[in-house]
Each structure stands twice: as structure tokens, then as C-alpha cells.
Amino acid sequence: MNFRWFISRAVRQASDMRSHVQKLLNAQRDILAPPAVTALEESLAAMRAAIASGANAAALKAEMDKLEAAANKWLKPYPSHSIRENVEVILVAVAVALAVRTFFVQPFKIPTGSMQPTLYGITSENYRNQPDVKFPTGVARFVDSWFRGTTYFDIVCEEDGVLTSVEPPKRIAPFFHRQKFTIGSRDYTIWTSPENEIFGGRNNRSGVSPGQPFKKGESILKLKVIAGDHLFVNRLTYNFRPPRRGEIIVFETRGIPDLPQDQFYIKRMVALGGERVRIGDDQHLVINGERLDAATPHFENVYSFQGEPKDSHYSGHLNEKIYTPYRKPGHGPIAPLFDDGAQERTLRPHHYLVMGDNTLNSYDSRAWGDFPRENVIGKSTFVYWPVSSRFGWSHR
Fold this sequence. Notes:
This protein is an alpha+beta fold and 396 residues long. It folds into three domains: 4-74, Substrate Binding Domain Of Dnak, Chain:A, Domain 2; 123-226, no CATH class; 230-385, Umud Fragment, subunit A (Ribbon), CATH 2.10.109.10. The mean pLDDT is 89. The protein has helices spanning 4-7, 9-28, 34-53, 57-74, 81-103, 138-146, 320-323, 365-368; strands spanning 105-109, 123-126, 150-156, 161-166, 170-173, 176-183, 186-192, 213-214, 219-226, 230-234, 248-252, 264-272, 276-279, 285-287, 290-291, 345-346, 351-355, 371-372, 376-385. Helix content is 26%, strand content 25%.
């Protein structure tokens, strides 16, 4: 590149114009008549020579005028050129975004509570029977929603009646669902995200159900819902090295028996292919005969527990024998592949075993076993929303 390009505005303008006309000529060469191609090539050559010879600004301006005249005379105008240019910019931006998502980082949101308290899924607090609790309004409510990921639902019954019907959530926009319900003769509407499950669903965060009576002035909903952690998954690192024990990884469920086949899960990788694994009755993993503890990298918090296991607290890892006294009514086994501290399993080559940090409430490899390394998408890297104690690089 000519050094004068860096110090002369006229040289930069002339070079940009020559490149632009050359691009248009290359695009239209097969539809232009030979005299047009010849005339444009001569004008481009003259411009190139003027730049290379060190011509002054006035001489370059004269050559630019000649090149512009030739381009206007011989090149064919594009219909709706502004639309074409905008579409081109959009397509380039989409291509760059897809490339970044595929090869570098991918956004991911925590769907469940299986990694609590390291990473949180959606949680809720029901205040329906606490009339003294006041929800924020105005600016405080806006800040809670946009920065802390907290949504409030506060609906009061307008007349005596019974909850007679609850419509399934209806998708209105990509991130908003509308749900209607009826009490007596009055209809009520709430706006929420698909994952919140305010009425019905597995969680039924509202705590109410069809057939329940309400009196005028009574709270129907008084609910605080906190969004699950949204994070970036590093897709680059594992192209150069395999996952290491204790890293939090995201993987596809494809090919794993007893799991939905079109989802992504996030768990802590605890064992690698070929290793022998058992879960001791002391709630510690034993790999190839060696017991993991709080001194093991990435397990500092997992094995920091004291006392009895608690939901959404660090409690080590439980086998079925230790879990059974804490099983909730109606829940099945959580670790059928690890009945007690003596049962040992050997992983298949090039496979991984993963477990959730919320050992009392995690459906993981204790139930469905190991999976091939090809399923791994990447490692959890950075929590970007909501702004909480887990924001940033803090989680381990």
C-alpha cells in the first residue's frame, strides 16, 4: 500500500473511489458492451497511475472527476440500490453473529435449579398469604425488572367467585406469553415468559388451582419471580483441549437415553472416560479409589457442606441410599445407578459423567449415566444477566 494513503486524504478518497468502480465493473463485466469495459478499464488505469506517481490533490481530483463521468456513462444503475446495500449490511451482520455463536461464544439460560447455588434457574417467592408485603413500583420496579430480572405479579379478586378456568399460555411475541383465567364472571390476564409457569405446569408458581374459591379483595396472585441466570458458553476452548474435572459444561441431550433429544443441559463434569466412579456414603465422589474433597480444584464449594443435605445448598453428592430419607412424596429415585457407597461404575471410553451441584434436586448422570464427548458444546464462562452476586466470572 502507498505510504501516502496514510497521510493524504485525497489519496484515500481516490483509492476508495477506484476500488468501488472496480468492484462494480467486475460485477457487471458480463452484461456490459466491450467499448464500455474498455473505457472503464482505461479510466481505472489512469487513476491507478495518478496515485502511484504521487500526483497532487488537484491532479487526483481531476482524475476522480473523469472516473466518475466514465462510471456514470457506462455502468448500469442498480434498481433499489439503497435497499440492496441495507440487505447486504444485514446479511453480513447475521453471518458474523452466527459465526461468533458457532465458533466462539453462545448465550445460554439456566432452565432449572439443578446447579443451585452455583447457578440459578427461575425461582419464585409467593406472598399471597402475606398482605403486609408491598411490591416496588415506578423506577424501582423498572430497575428490578431490567437489571435484576425480577418480575412482580399482584392481582386482587374483584368479586366473589371460584377459579373456573385457566387458559394455556398463548404466545404473543418471542419472549411474551399471555395467559387468561376466570373467577366468577370476571376475566383476568397476565403477561409472562414461557418458562415462568404461573398457573399450571410442573411448578404452578401461583399456588392456586381450578375450583379454588376467592372473595372480593383477596389476593389471587402476589408473586415475585426471579429470572434464571443467563450466561455465555465458551465454545472455543474445547477445540484445543478436553474438559477438565470439575468444569461446568453445556452439552446436547442427543443420543442420551431417557432425556429429551433436542435440549441443552448444564452440569458439572465429574469423571472422564475409563475412570471408575462411586459415590461414598459420606457424600463424596471416589474416582479410581481416590476420594474428592474441598481441596480438589473446582470442588471447593461443592464439598464445603456441613450437617444434613439441603435443597439448593452445597451438599456434596448423594447416592440413592443417602438420598432416600430426603425424598419428597411422589418423587422417584434420583440415583438408581449408584445405590450405595459400594456400587462402582466404569465409564465408557471418551465419555463423561456429570452431576448437578443441587444434589437433592438434580436429574443427572446418577440416573442416566455417561454420554459421549461429541455432545459437549462448551464451558460456562460469564453470567451476563441478571445483575446478582453471580454476575461476571465469579461462578466456579
